[in-house]
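ok new one. same drill as before - structure tokens go in, u give me an amino acid for every spot. 450 of them this time. try not to just spam alanines like last time pls lmao
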């Protein structure tokens, strides 16, 4: 490893030794930058890596709220404003029990590179809370969101920091957050949050954007290798927005999606997933995916066990799309997928594959689409939403989808070009990191020591 990269990683491990997710993300990016770092000492002379791996600002705060029984509850809120090099901070809010500072920093760090790849003027941030909206009433979620925004509002703005949704933060939560922000500020700043309902400034196709974008990227990657999605068997982990609309677009492209999952287990339908049924269960009833068997008794359900491998990765497939959460696809899962003949993997979630799994896929010739490139469609469409808010104007669904498709095509081409120039043919992980790094480093050098 390059001496400079090694020193930066060692120092980061020393000062962030209780933050494994952040260190994992940092290592994945920095080790792939070796070809460009070794060829130009300007990066070391200007401490580019040290500055790029340290957040500009970290905000942590208490979130008190009252549940329906009148009991006072306390959660912790976060906003990691990682980089404003190329635009206002931009990145989602995640409400989940697994949220901690390490997770927030890893997500914020990834967001810098992802946003740079879109070609749009947005910086990188991430935030959220260890609050779990599952099992909470609408009133409890509203009270929590109002308390959360009562602190967060002073740190955000449509030209400062623009949060959006993520795991546990959908249209309901964004609505409550926006309502409280507007109430406190006494002004309608439509661009301060994205992922809003279309009835008050949201963008058409935003809900579908991350899943659709993943399939646009996969189509381009496969096309480059003379492979088509038509008639391919696909498995998609997760059953939230990303997974649902990845399935929808995969089916539109002629693929046969046979499996989806949630945190309890996965369903397998050899005839192809009935997406309308999944939408009813997950988007309307907020139920568990096992309920799919109530209307499709011939489908199979596999419950999660404690062996560290989700049952969905044991299902034979041509294409695997991890769309649930970080580190869901381990080395052991990768070995099973390869043994079963997988030809391509596309990350819809943020960092869903471990570094060991990614290396194994590369070693065995599996095409791999990294999250920061393949799932950038969501934040790209959020930036399109910001543009519409600034113009006081709405694009049609088709206009947004066409813009999204072109952005994803451009991202793939940038990844391919960067990997080829670095002598790392078809390594789209390195290509994505190098392409984004060049843009960010150029901005950092231009703006001086800030």
């Amino acid at each position: 490893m390059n001496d400079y990269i090694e020193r930066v990683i060692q120092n980061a491990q020393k000062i962030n030794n209780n933050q494994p997710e952040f260190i994992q993300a940092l290592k994945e990016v920095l080790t792939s930058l070796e070809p460009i770092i070794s060829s130009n000492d300007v990066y070391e002379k200007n401490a580019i890596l040290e500055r790029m791996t340290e957040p500009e600002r970290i905000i942590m705060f208490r979130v008190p709220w009252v549940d329906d029984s009148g009991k006072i509850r306390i959660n912790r809120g976060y906003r990691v404003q990682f980089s404003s090099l190329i635009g206002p901070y931009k990145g989602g809010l995640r409400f989940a029990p697994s949220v901690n500072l390490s997770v927030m920093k890893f997500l914020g760090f990834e967001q810098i590179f992802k946003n740079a790849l879109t070609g749009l003027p947005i910086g990188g941030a991430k935030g959220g809370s260890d609050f779990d909206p599952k099992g909470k009433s609408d009133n409890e979620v509203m009270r929590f969101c109002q308390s959360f925004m009562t602190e967060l509002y002073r740190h955000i703005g449509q030209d400062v920091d623009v949060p959006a949704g993520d795991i546990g933060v959908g249209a309901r939560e964004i609505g409550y957050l926006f309502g409280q922000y507007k109430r406190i500020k006494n002004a309608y700043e439509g661009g301060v949050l994205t992922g809003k309902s279309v009835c008050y400034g949201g963008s058409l196709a935003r809900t579908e954007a991350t899943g659709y974008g993943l399939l646009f990227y996969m189509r381009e990657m496969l096309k480059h290798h003379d492979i088509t999605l038509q008639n391919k068997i696909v498995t998609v982990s997760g059953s939230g927005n990303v997974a649902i609309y990845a399935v929808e677009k995969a089916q539109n492209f002629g693929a046969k999606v046979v499996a989806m999952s949630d945190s309890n287990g996965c369903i397998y339908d050899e005839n192809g997933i009935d997406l309308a049924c999944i939408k009813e269960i997950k988007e309307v009833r907020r139920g568990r995916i096992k309920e799919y068997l109530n209307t499709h008794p011939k489908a199979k359900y596999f419950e999660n066990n404690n062996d560290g491998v989700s049952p969905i990765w044991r299902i034979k497939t041509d294409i695997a799309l991890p769309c649930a959460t970080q580190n869901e696809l381990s080395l052991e899962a990768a070995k099973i997928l390869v043994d079963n003949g997988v030809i391509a993997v596309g990350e819809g979630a943020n960092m869903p594959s471990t570094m060991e799994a990614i290396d194994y896929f590369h070693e065995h010739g599996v095409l791999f689409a990294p999250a920061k490139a393949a799932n950038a469609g969501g934040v790209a469409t959020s930036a399109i939403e910001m543009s519409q808010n600034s113009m006081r104007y709405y694009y049609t669904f088709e206009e947004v989808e066409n813009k999204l498709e072109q952005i994803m095509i451009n991202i793939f081409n940038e990844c391919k070009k960067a990997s080829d120039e670095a002598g790392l043919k078809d390594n789209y992980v390195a290509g994505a990191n190098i392409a984004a790094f060049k843009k960010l480093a150029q901005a950092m050098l231009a703006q001086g020591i800030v």
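The CA atoms of residues 49 and 440 lie 11 Å apart. and btw DSSP finds 18 helices and twelve strands in the chain.
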